[in-house]
Amino acid sequence: MPRKPVLSASRIRATALAIIDRDGPAGLSMRKLAAELGVRAASLYGHVATKDDLLHEVAGDVLAEVDVSGFAAGDWRHGLVTCGRSYRAALAEHPNIVPFLARGPARRETPLRRLDAVHGALVAAGWTRREAAMIAEALVYLVLGAALGSFTGDRYPNPDEAHLPPSVAREPDRDSFELALDAFVTGLAARGPG
Known about the structure:
The protein is mostly helical. It has 2 domains: 9-49, Homeodomain-like (Arc Repressor Mutant, subunit A), CATH 1.10.10; 63-191, Orthogonal Bundle (Tetracycline Repressor, domain 2), CATH 1.10.357.10. Helix content is 63%, strand content 0%. Helix 4 runs parallel beside helix 7. It is elongated and about 60 Å long.
């Protein structure tokens, strides 16, 4: 007698992310997910209520890769750079989730904890609560803007770069992001907290 596949929330999310990576968010359906897991779609609903809830959970898993540990030493500049780079790297790993993330923040614990860590570290460094919120949002705009332009496949490379492999063609994207991140942090440092 064949064994029934064991379902877990983490297995469901990992399989959903694999589908999103391959087919984009529009390519994810509960029926397709169930087929890939070897179960009936109805068995998924004991773990997740709707596709939208599942997308938020998957987005939360992707955003769990954002590193906020750079704020621990009390250097908000280092914290912003580390956070921005890891955020961009997480999105580069899963570019098909970017349009979903661009719709707004995920409604899950992990992204909210990351945002709270950034906000708290900026306030502790002397930025007002309003400034800290604005800086955190500006960092999100910077990363998502770079990701939307770089990773979504809607780019039209210069003709002289069309022959390059994607990994080499993305170097200007990475360098442009680094330039923008540096200008962002340098500009904030010149302004100073408070």
